[in-house]
């Protein structure tokens, strides 16, 4: 976090924060100064991706997403991770935010518009779409397509029998047995964020129900 003089200044600034959200903002400013020399925009892009992920992202996924042609070197990411690790909970190997207040700050600071929020969802959709039948993609891809409002791609995905079999297995089923359709339907419903409905989107003119959806 810097030498003693700048650290003392940072601590003084933190103590001046009016509330938790303001404190998060000050710490993010500090991270941006300290950890973006090797990879400009690292803090912003990391926080955006974690904000958009349904269940979180693994370190390997983050490094691949943050890199260009090659994954971001771990040496460029580790200092930020170590500094911010108290902000994350690692469950099943996935990093996600621990506090809703932090998510709100990330959204306000790095994703202030609907267009930007859709764009980061679509970036994750492209990433998971490279292998759409992998378990992680089955869990994340529909969620990202909903967030990105790519209804045509969502409709094609949910019309794919192989994908639906993967969703069935992910929710605890096997390749055969009764109740397969119902379980797959519940899986489809779980991908929809709270408050999202096809009927509402039809009324507002943003979409029609995709062919083959649950």
Descriptive overview:
By secondary structure, this protein is mostly helical. It folds into two domains: 4-107, no CATH class; 132-204, no CATH class. It is built from twelve helices and two strands, in the order αααααββααααααα. The protein has helices at 4-15, 20-35, 42-52, 59-66, 74-84, 100-110, 114-129, 135-147, 151-158, 161-170, 180-190, 198-204; strands at 88-91, 94-97. Strands 1-2 form a two-stranded antiparallel ribbon. Helix 1 (4-15) packs antiparallel against helix 2, helix 7 (114-129) packs antiparallel against helix 8 and helix 10 (161-170) crosses helix 11. It is elongated. Mean pLDDT is 82; it is low at 175-185 and 195-214.
Report the average pLDDT across residues: 82
Hey, roughly how much beta strand do the residues contain? under 5%
Q: In percent, how helical is the residue content? A: 55-70%
Q: Give the helix/strand class.
A: mainly alpha
Distance between the termini: 50 Å
State the shape. Answer: elongated
Give the count of structural domains.
2
Number of helices: 12
Sequence of secondary-structure elements: HHHHHEEHHHHHHH
Number of strands: 2
Largest sheet: 2 strands, antiparallel
Cross-sheet strand order for the largest sheet? 1-2
């Amino acid at each position: 976090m810097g030498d003693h003089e700048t650290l003392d200044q940072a601590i003084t600034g933190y103590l001046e924060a009016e509330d938790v959200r303001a404190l998060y903002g000050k710490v993010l400013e500090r991270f941006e100064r300290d950890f973006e020399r090797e990879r400009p925009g690292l803090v912003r892009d990391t926080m955006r991706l974690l904000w958009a992920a349904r269940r979180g992202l693994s370190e390997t996924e983050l490094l691949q997403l943050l890199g260009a042609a090659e994954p971001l070197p771990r040496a460029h990411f580790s200092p930020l991770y170590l500094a911010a690790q108290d902000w994350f909970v690692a469950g099943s190997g996935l990093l996600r935010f621990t506090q809703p207040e932090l998510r709100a700050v990330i959204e306000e600071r790095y994703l202030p518009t609907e267009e930007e929020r859709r764009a980061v969802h679509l970036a994750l959709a492209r990433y998971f779409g490279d292998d759409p039948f992998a378990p992680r993609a089955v869990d994340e891809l529909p969620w990202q397509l909903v967030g990105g409002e790519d209804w045509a791609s969502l409709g094609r995905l949910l019309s794919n029998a192989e994908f639906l079999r993967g969703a069935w297995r992910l929710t605890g089923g096997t390749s055969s047995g009764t109740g397969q359709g119902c379980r797959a339907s519940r899986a489809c419903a779980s991908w929809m964020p709270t408050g999202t409905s096809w009927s509402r989107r039809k009324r507002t003119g943003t979409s029609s129900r995709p062919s083959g959806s649950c």
